[in-house]
Amino acid sequence: MTDEAATVTAPAPAPPVEAAPVPAAEPPAAPPPEDVASLPEWTQKMIRELRTEAATNRTKATTAEATKTETMDAIAKALGLKGDDDPAAAAKTAAEERDAARKQAQDATTTLAVYRMAAKQGANPESLTDSRSFMRQLEAIDPADAEFAAKVETAIKTAVEANPSLKAPGAPVVAPARSGGPVGGGAAIPGQVTEDELKTMNPAQIEQAQKDGRLAAILGRQPED
Fold this sequence. Notes:
By secondary structure, the chain is mainly α.
């Protein structure tokens, strides 16, 4: 037997068999929601308590945050780091500050005018400015008025005539105007105080009139020229 006859041809290998695909497992179905009412009473009570506690905690947290915000805003406003959030309140505050500034400026202008005009009327400026009634009268005079100075001077003159204690120390005393003729029908001596005038004068005026020699006629002395 020849070598060629002895050779046996091997069979061809069989093709690989593909495995069948395994279907994916479906996710487990979600359990149906349970009705709280179907649970035991003790479980229902626990759920209610937990819900109440959670709601209370949320309320406390919200309140605490609001309080913290209000506190920080108040501190910032006090330090001038934050303005007023309310436009109406801010406008009101600005108007009040503006009016206060105008009032202060008017008071300062009026006080300065009193000091300037007091000497012309022989008045004590400190006594005038210390008089609340007098200063209240000047509030009606607008510093922007063209006759402001004249009106202040007139007010000073009127106040001094009504209250001689407002006169400056050493200022000449002007006797009040006398009505009628001199006592006894005699002629009034210029510059001398008559008896009628003397009755209307206060002690300070009388003392000043004596220093000025204006009581000579009443005292029976010859007035000095």
